[in-house]
């Protein structure tokens, strides 16, 4: 049997219009994983990106900073806020992957996502997103405070605007992604009715920007020629992203230090809040090492993979908690 040249997908240049008898320029679907990992049921679970739910632990930041982490009246609505942010975030991921399906299929890693791989239909992903977000809004009003529903709505609207338009706008895309982390921190305080300090908001905002700039830098270094899968990467240089993460880290460290010194003035005995500055700065510097190597992908992945960074984070939380509770 004669094999015709056009039977090889490598001979069809990407981005060119297919002529009669040639293959379409549409990227090929990634091969399914063997066994249960490639099944439709597991694809539905993966499409929700449960691994990214670890980001939502940030809802605990406000109760911890306020010293109310052991208050049952505070933790109940905070726990609800965590669950609802998981639902809302998964809804956004479903819509995002539906919109970016063609670009994801050209990406070396994202092509294996369930929607890009054709395991989960696009219409089903959108329907699931609508159901998850509706549940989150109704539950927020019934079990916590209406203000939490407003925060969740703001998060979803901003992230959907990012998926559709803003992700192609340099600088704006950094701010939008960072806002996702900031709103998680705000959600914990809003759900529990806690007053958020200016220092908390500054640290959360610029700490988020630091992580986002580091993630973009890693993508720029690792993806290389495939940077076309994220258009804004072509607008950034390595030196610019270094400037952004240096600036944001500096503001975050300064704001945290001012908060720690202010809290330390009201304490007696060991100044734990002041001591917590050391592990906080060390954690920032350790994270920067991973960023500089181009190894800082998703923040939750790098924190779980870098054991030294994880230990510094635990030490920081412990010393900060001792300062907050004035032990």
Report on the structure:
It is a single chain. With 327 residues, the chain is mainly alpha-helical. It is 63% helix and 0% strand. The chain has 13 helices and no strands. The protein has helices spanning 40-47, 61-65, 72-99, 101-104, 122-143, 146-164, 172-192, 198-223, 238-264, 272-275, 277-292, 299-305, 307-324. Helix 3 (72-99) packs antiparallel against helix 7.
Radius of gyration: 22 Å
Residue runs with pLDDT of under 50 for 5 or more positions: 1-24
Could you state the order of secondary-structure elements as H and E? HHHHHHHHHHHHH
**Total E-strand runs:** 0
The chain-level mean pLDDT equals 83
Shape: globular
Count of helices?
13
Our estimate of the beta-strand percent is under 5%
Structural class: mainly alpha
Which terms would index this structure?
single chain; 0% strand; 327 residues; mainly alpha; 13 helices
What is this structure's SSE topology?
Layout: H1 40-47, H2 61-65, H3 72-99, H4 101-104, H5 122-143, H6 146-164, H7 172-192, H8 198-223, H9 238-264, H10 272-275, H11 277-292, H12 299-305, H13 307-324
Helix pairs in contact: 3-5, 3-6, 3-7, 5-6, 6-7, 7-8, 8-9, 9-11, 11-13
Could you provide a short overview of the structure?
With 327 residues, this protein is mainly alpha-helical. It is built from 13 helices and no strands.
